[in-house]
Amino acid sequence: MTWTLPNILTVLRLFAAPGVAVMFLFFIRPWADWFALVLFVTAAVTDFVDGYLARAWKQESKFGAMLDPIADKAMVIIALLVITGFSGMNPWILLPATLILFREVFVSGLREFLGSKAGLLKVTKLAKWKTTAQMVAIAVLFSTGAFEHYFVMESIGMDETMVDSILSGGTPDEVGLVWKYWGMIISWWTGIVLLWLAAILTLMTGWDYFSKALPFLRDAPQPDPSERHAP
To answer: Membrane spanning segments where (predicted)?
Structure first.
């Protein structure tokens, strides 16, 4: 393997995937949310950069082609596990995350079964849109966690009546509670819509790959014993 810049970026993206989860082990929230967001977005940007550089500099390699989708899947799967965990297993997140994880495992199994014929399951434009939707949704949902914790911290010591009064404009907002609240709400629903969109695209690409692999999954027809001729 040649250590070109595109390959180095791909390897760094692969190592960044578990780093997203590690942020929540070594830092308290909301710092963990922000660090995970920055790390995830930086890694996601390298997904575009390494492919662009590899094509522009004619440095495409088998190693990069193999590792690139693995790094993408690792990033998405680990980030979804983290988000599902700190969301309290919210069904709005749990269901699309489950569909995405199921598809990734299913397609990986198809590629392993097809072996040398796995080239039939090349990454399509729709699959690239799927990956983009997944990464944007995850980034937005990481920001939701940060807004949520800022909102909670600033409202400590306030009862529900006081919080409602500040949000409705009846009481002066001296701690920026309103923009933290709306940041939390807007980022939450934006992330949910994008995650469900990503789940739909994920299922569509999974079905497309399954359709292409289906001819190789059928057993060869067995000869009819009655048609055999005696020697």
So the answer is: 7-28, 34-53, 65-86, 135-152, 181-204
